């Protein structure tokens, strides 16, 4: 009875605009009971409670309340059918064209399905158009590197990203408790040199391949915590509040949720010294799959083409380069972009309707 009473949706119990609870849950009598109930037309249920309160519940609300945790996760995460890919995606990569008529959800739907998307015909004379594109999705995340970035390989920040050396496939910000959700790159210019091709690898596809070929290795990478850090800049040593496994799964669905893979930022492995080799053996197999030619998608970025990818799924890297490259971009929080995607794709009623259930 407490569950049903606690989830009354009337204006006295839930704020109409904010959808936040107004009801003091623990003011509900512990022996609350139904005094009477009536099923009205359109399947609307009214309940008179023993404390004198009256509640009305729609059929849609009751249906959502009855959903199990896996069904609710569909709404919570904005789950959709994913398209896993390998190097062959080079033939038809997901893309949209920047224009005044471009719908943000057309972009986000592709990112949610494939893990990345190109936006063509973006003005590259200045970084302004790129920054506005990211802001149309959500807030640009501030980090110890700043917010929206516009840089060359000058080591202005103490990170290998600010050099011209090759970078293996990795995910960014593994040293945060909450790694960045989306990441964007826009090559504004590349003068007096060559190289610097971008590498993308579908971490979910590679994880599936590992699971199919070596379930024990998959289990180890899904359960053993790894610690990471960012300590290159003066006065900074960022570390998550705890270690996390390379492969993280949703507790409700069991589905793979996030890949954390960055050997450059890795610190310790949370295993006794006499067991740590088991992690290295499993990681070696995952690394070999990441570097398998069939799984590596290489593409030379060009001015006017913005790349946005899901940092929880897609690993990125680059080949070494010469000359001077100017790149702009930024991070967007996972919660922010998924919120935008859900509200645009599922609609406000569906998203908010799944909240009040427990």
From TrEMBL:
GO terms for cellular component: mitochondrion. It is an enzyme of class 1 (oxidoreductase). It comes from the Eukaryota. One of its GO terms (biological process) is carnitine biosynthetic process. Its cofactor is Fe(2+); L-ascorbate. Residues 104-330 form the TauD/TfdA-like domain. Residues 5-62 form the Gamma-butyrobetaine hydroxylase-like N-terminal domain. InterPro entries: AlphaKG_dependent_hydroxylases (IPR050411), GBBH-like_N (IPR010376), GBBH-like_N_sf (IPR038492), TauD-like_sf (IPR042098), TauD/TfdA-like (IPR003819), Trimethyllysine_dOase (IPR012776). The keyword Oxidoreductase applies. Its EC number is 1.14.11.8. Pathway: Amine and polyamine biosynthesis; carnitine biosynthesis. GO terms for molecular function: iron ion binding; trimethyllysine dioxygenase activity. Keywords: Carnitine biosynthesis, Dioxygenase, Iron, Metal-binding, Oxidoreductase. Belongs to the gamma-BBH/TMLD family. Converts trimethyllysine (TML) into hydroxytrimethyllysine (HTML). This is trimethyllysine dioxygenase. It comes from Setomelanomma holmii.
């Amino acid at each position: 009875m407490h569950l049903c009473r606690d989830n009354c949706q009337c204006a006295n119990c839930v704020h109409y605009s904010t959808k936040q609870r107004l009801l003091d849950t623990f003011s509900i009598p512990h022996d609350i009971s139904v005094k009477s109930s009536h099923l009205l037309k359109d399947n609307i249920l009214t309940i008179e409670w023993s404390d004198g309160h009256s509640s009305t519940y729609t059929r849609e609300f009751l249906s959502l309340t009855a959903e199990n945790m896996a069904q609710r996760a569909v709404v919570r995460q904005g789950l959709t059918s994913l398209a896993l890919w390998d190097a062959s995606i080079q033939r038809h990569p997901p893309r949209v064209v920047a224009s005044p008529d471009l719908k943000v959800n057309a972009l986000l739907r592709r990112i949610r399905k494939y893990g990345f998307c190109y936006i063509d015909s973006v003005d590259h004379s200045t970084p302004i158009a790129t920054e506005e594109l990211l802001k149309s999705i959500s807030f640009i995340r501030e980090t110890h590197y700043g917010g929206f970035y516009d840089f060359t390989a000058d080591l202005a920040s103490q990170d290998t990203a600010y050099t011209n050396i090759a970078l293996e496939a990795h995910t960014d910000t593994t040293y945060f408790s909450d790694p960045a959700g989306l990441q964007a790159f826009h090559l504004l210019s590349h003068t007096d040199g060559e190289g610097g091709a971008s590498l993308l690898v579908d971490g979910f596809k590679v994880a599936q391949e590992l699971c199919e070929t070596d379930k024990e290795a998959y289990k180890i990478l899904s359960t053993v915590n790894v610690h990471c850090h960012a300590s290159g800049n003066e006065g900074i040593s960022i570390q998550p509040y705890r270690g996390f496994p390379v492969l993280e799964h949703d507790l409700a669905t069991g589905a793979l949720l996030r890949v954390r893979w960055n050997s450059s930022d890795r610190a310790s492995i949370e295993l006794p010294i006499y067991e740590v080799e088991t992690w290295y053996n499993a990681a070696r197999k995952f690394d070999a799959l990441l570097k398998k030619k069939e799984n590596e998608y290489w593409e030379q970025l060009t001015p006017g083409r913005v790349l946005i990818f899901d940092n929880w799924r897609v690993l990125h890297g680059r080949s070494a380069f010469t000359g001077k490259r100017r790149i702009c971009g930024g991070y967007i929080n996972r919660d922010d972009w998924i919120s935008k995607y859900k509200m645009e794709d599922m609609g406000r009623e569906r998203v908010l309707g799944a909240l009040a259930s427990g």
